[in-house]
Each structure stands twice: as C-alpha cells, then as structure tokens.
Amino acid sequence: MRRRVEAIPGRPLPYGILGGCTDVIDVTDEHELLGVEWMALGCSPVRDTDWCPDESPGEESPGSVPGQKEFFAPTHEVADPITVYAGVRCSTIGWSYQEAIEHVRASLELGEQQGVESAFWRYTLAPRAVDLTPDDGPVSLAQGVAALEGCLAESYGGVGTFHVPTGAAALLSCCNIAYADGNRLSTLAGNCVIVGSGYSGELWTGRLPGAARHGLVVHLRARRRPARPHRSHPGPRRLAATSRAQGGLLDIDEETGQAALRAAGLYDEFLTLVRPGEDAKRVVDRHGTILLDKPADRRSARPEVDRGELRRLLIDSLAPETIRWGRRLDRVRRRPEGGYDLTFEAGPAARADVVVGADGAWSKVRALLTPAAPRYSGTCFVEVALASGDGIRGASVASIGSGTLMAVAPGKGTIVHRYADGQVRGYVALNKSEGWMRSIDFGDPSAGLRQVAGEFDGWSPLLTAFVTESDAEPLLRPVYALPVGIS
Ligand SMILES: Cc1cc2nc3c(=O)[nH]c(=O)nc-3n(C[C@H](O)[C@H](O)[C@H](O)COP(=O)(O)OP(=O)(O)OC[C@H]3O[C@@H](n4cnc5c(N)ncnc54)[C@H](O)[C@@H]3O)c2cc1C
Fold first, then answer.
1. pTM (2 decimals)?
2. Which one has a higher pLDDT value, 205 or 350?
C-alpha cells in the first residue's frame, strides 16, 4: 500500500539555529518571507566625521564641531529563504499506518533541520566568517569562548549564539564555561550555546589535528512559511467540503444553471451570492487598447457567482452524511439481474438500483453508456491571481475595470476578474499541446510563470504582469471536451 503523506506543518525545530536561542516566525503572507535575518557584525570603529575646520581668518564660525561621532551600527542582513526537500520511502511492514506516518514526519523534520543548518552555515555565514584563532595555534576551549565573547561585545554590543562542536560539549560544563539556564545552555556572559547542529563546510573542519572550531552568530530570526506539499505529483484526494480552492467566477446561464437551481429550490439563496457589478466586461487587444467596455448590468441573464460559494450552497442544502467524502468511485458494473455494483478506491463496495453519473469529464459512470472519451481541446488554462500594490501591480489591477478583463489573440489570452473586495483572479490561456504545458516546471512557480509569459512577447506589460507577478499557485487547467454530437 502506498499512501501520500501531507507535508509537515512548519514549527520551530528543537535544536540549532532554528531552535533554542533563535526566534522562528511562521508567516502566512509570503510577502513577509525573508528567510533568515540577522544583525551583521560591524567590526567598524567609531570614528570622527570628516571634519574640515574653517581656516579663513576672521571668520566667526568655527565650522563643524570637532569630535562629532558617527556610529556604525550593526547592519540588518537577510539570507534568501531556504527550501529543503526531503522525502522518505518506507515500508509499513510491522508498523501501523499511523506509526509509519509518525516515522516519516520525524524523518522529514530531521532532514529539514540538517538541510537548513547546513545550507545556512555553508552558503551564508561561512563565506563571511573571520577566523579568530591566534597565529600561534589553537587555544583552549575557555580561551576560545573568551575570544568569541570579546568579539561579540566589541563589535556588536549584544548577545549572540555560540555553536560548539558536539565533541567539545562535555568540556563546557567541566570547565565552568556554560551552565543550564532553564532549558537552554548559556555562557557566564549570557550568550546562548548550541551544541552540535550540523556544521558543514571547510570552515568547521579544523586545519590542525585536535583543533576544535567554534562559531558565533548574533541574534537570528528565521521566517518561514508552513511546509507545502510538492505539486509535481498528483495531490492527495480532497476529502472535505472546504478542502480546496475552487477557481474563479462562474457565470450561470438562465436556461441551464439557473433552471437547475430553481428546480432544487435554491434560486433565492443563489441570488444572494450573485456579485452585482462584477459582470462588467472589458475586451482589450494585446497592447491594452480597449476594444469593448460593457458596464455591469444588475439584471444580467448570466450573473456571476464565486465557484466556492456556489459549491457551499449546494453542499449545505443536503442532509449531513449525504456526501461520503473520500469514497472515490473506482468501478461501476451493471449486474445481469439488474442494478449496479460499485467499488471505491477506499471503503466497502456498494450496490445500487439507480446510478446518476455526475463525476465530471472523466466520468467512470459514462462508460456504461458510451465508449466516447474526452479529448484535449488544445487549450490549457493556468490559474493566476494578483494582489494590488505599487507600480505595475496596481496599474494592472486598475486596467481591469470593475469586472472581467479579456485580452485575447489567436492561440493565447488572459482572462482576469476583479472582485468587489479587490481580489483579482483569473487565467492565462495558451493553445499548446498538453505535453508542452506539463513540461513547464512549476516547482519554482515564478520561473514557470515567466516561461508562460514568454509566449506573450510584445504584449503590454500591464497584461503580462498578471502572469509574471501572479501570487497564485499556478494550477494547470487543460480543457477537455467530449466529441461534438454525443448524446
Ligand atoms: C477555466 C474554466 C472556466 C469555466 N467558466 C465557466 C463559466 O463561467 N460558466 C459556466 O457555466 N461554466 C464554466 N466552465 C465549465 C464548468 O466548469 C463545467 O461545465 C462544469 O464544472 C461541469 O460540471 P460537472 O458537474 O459535469 O463536472 P465537475 O464540475 O468536474 O464535477 C465532477 C465532480 O465529480 C467528482 N468526481 C470525479 N471523478 C470521481 C470519482 N471517480 N468518484 C467520485 N467523485 C468523482 C469530482 O471531484 C467533482 O467534484 C468553465 C470551465 C473551465 C475549465
């Protein structure tokens, strides 16, 4: 049995630079995601400002006051966000599924710990590190700590974090260098001590036999977002009414969708979901020149509603337990004596007298009626979204008008919608083979979206910004359709 395990939620790790003495800030807004930030050691002496005494005879002004000081405060620095990929393949033999998940979670946490520590030391701190070892060779542990504390005090004036090799840890307490302060280890001067924690790189390998290297960093803050599942593989089955975003707006036709809602007795509630004013339509060419500007019509025959809200309305109208979440239909078979046998990917089989297939383009039920299968229409949509902001973002959002903006040209286009609350969501569409679309590596969403935007060369930046600046996870929506004429 192979099952997919959701990514572990981000939380402070128990050791090392991301634990103990470090602030770990879990952010939800990715704009705040700055990776690791710290106060860099200035090592710059206080000095006089350029003093240029006025020497002109008889002049009353003495010029600038001598002795004015300029302080070089420690600078605030940031390192790129660090992304760690870790995975575990495991056999569940001898373990329950829950035990296997626990094991995977623990392994992922450990992998994340080691990966972050290693990357941060190797690529960010080690290249700038200063070796404080005296010329005449290694010093004792106490002298080393004293040298580091002196450096911290002189250059930074604050406390920091010492990273001490595991092999030297035992000496810390027997030499009275560190003591336990609550749950953390601290020096007499109040600097936090971290033992071990994944050093790597030449800086930490000691050039002399027996030499132990110590490192210090000033106060660190790590900002990170909760871990997310890697999207290049199919996601887990969606198991609840609210467990996924539903995409953008839907215009509901009078003869089809509205008729169905009336028949279900939900029409009045549906009207409360209609977004008045958002059915304005603006069509522009690739330069952004307006070709059509149709204002909103409150009496539109095709009012716009949010997919998620419509879905909630439909689900809430059912008795609880009507929908069995997580019961994905695997196969449906007609019984010779009448009725149907249904088997599911999980859970017990079922028998039914009547089966209504409403399982979308890839319906398993439809196969009972016709061998026809959907075909790729040749057009693929990619979801985009844009939060308003300064510069090009704000200008792009403003260019939409109050409803939907469509910019279409042969083989490509952008369709974005501005919601009353200021949100912008929509799609960029390309007529490309599905293989080409799927070959785009959206593992790095910005790079993937830049590749998509490359297909819009020469288009107004106001339009391409919907793609290049998109904040949405770039989900692919290849459009499949049944052959025309099937009944
Ligand atoms: C980008 C885009 C924009 C669109 N805009 C509009 C619009 O503005 N107005 C409009 O009217 N239409 C629009 N459409 C079309 C509209 O979304 C579809 O026509 C409509 O969703 C089809 O409904 P459905 O119930 O047949 O299938 P779906 O909406 O695909 O629903 C099928 C359901 O069955 C479930 N399912 C699938 N397989 C199984 C299984 N084996 N076992 C159990 N459950 C299963 C799925 O999880 C899903 O919940 C748009 C489509 C796209 C792609």
1. 0.51
2. 350
